[in-house]
Amino acid sequence: MKIALLGYGKMGRIIEKIAIDRKNEIVLKIDENNAHELTTENLKKADVAIEFSIPDTVLGHIDACFKANVPIVVGTTGWYGHLQRIKDDCVDGGHTLLYASNFSVGVNVFFHVNKILAKLMNNYPYYDVQVEEIHHTQKLDSPSGTAITIAEGIIDGLADKKEWVNELVDAGASAQEVVKPDQVLIESLRVENVPGTHTVIYDSEVDTIEFKHTAHNRNGFALGAVLAAEWVQGKKGFYSVKDMFNFSL
Ligand SMILES: NC(=O)c1ccc[n+]([C@@H]2O[C@H](COP(=O)([O-])OP(=O)(O)OC[C@H]3O[C@@H](n4cnc5c(N)ncnc54)[C@H](O)[C@@H]3O)[C@@H](O)[C@H]2O)c1
Predict the structure, then answer these.
(1) 121: domain CATH number?
(2) How many structural domains compose the chain?
(3) Which of 159, 172, 203, 214 is surrounded by the fewest CB atoms within 10 Å?
(4) Where is the protein situated, by its record's location annotation (predicted)?
(5) What would the pLDDT profile of 110-148 be if each residue is shown by its tens digit?
(6) Ligand 1-lining residues (CB < 6 angstroms)
């Protein structure tokens, strides 16, 4: 498979290594220093593009891939307010896009079990729920896309929760946000060198249940993105990583 890397930062570099180990070839690398090389002609040299850049550039990268008719796998987070427009453009134009707030197998298992747990906890309304996410200090978006997916899974499962609210909290401090009964609080902490930790906390007067995922490094995200690039080959349409993992009990 010939791959274009759109965004060549921490994730782009790990993806390059894993993709080459899996006998793929990198034919284009785009970052802020050579953005002018992102042309239709250059993109057409690739079978697929893998996009890990920044929220300000991701939409332009998606549009460029649609224009060149090259399937795109999107890992960048912080653009989901535009999801419906992108989905419509993708389907109407006969293009191919797969996105994930988190490509790791472990986190996708976590997402699945989180939804089941939320449905179960519906029977025990004296527990209140919140989500905590911890990431490195260079992360641009808050809360993380992964935390949003977790909160949406909880809102899906718990009848009395309708929306999430985020609070960026200094390490060591506790959340000050006044949370309404129908809201799920996401506490976002930024700590040096943390690749990503997410905890769902159900708290009652008598005990606390914690369900936690800790990424040890970025390799799991990168491998999932390369697997997704392989998976979309020959497919048309708009996919999320759920379509690829397709968990069932
Ligand atoms: N979905 C997942 O599994 C997953 C996992 C990790 C990170 N992420 C997300 O992926 C994104 C990238 O993460 P990262 O850790 O590699 O960040 P990073 O800061 O290391 O890299 C971002 C890269 O964006 C590129 N960039 C900046 N401006 C650009 C421009 N104008 N044109 C082209 N490229 C430009 C640069 O190459 C830069 O290095 C973030 O949104 C992060 O939240 C997603």
Answers:
(1) 3.30.360.10
(2) 2
(3) 172
(4) Cytoplasm
(5) 999 999 999 999 999 999 999 999 999 999 889 999 999
(6) 7-12, 30-32, 35, 52-54, 57, 75-78, 100-103, 138, 221
Q: Are residues 196 and 240 in the same domain?
A: no
pLDDT in tens, 35-77: 999 999 999 999 999 999 999 999 999 999 999 999 999 999 9
Beta bridge mates, 8 = none
Judge whether 76 is annotated as a binding position: yes
Rounded CA separation 133/118 (Å): 18
Could you tell me the two tokens for 156?
A: 């899906």
- Whether the model clears a pTM of 0.85, i.e. scores above it, the answer is yes
| Ligand 1 atom closest to the CA of 75, numbered from 1 | 1
Query: By mean pLDDT, which of 25-29, 60-64, 139-143, 207-211 is the weakest?
Result: 139-143
Side by side, the strands of the sheet bearing 163-169 are 163-169, 183-190, 128-135, 197-203, 208-214
CATH number at residue 20: 3.40.50.720
Distance 7 CA to ligand 1 centre (A): 6
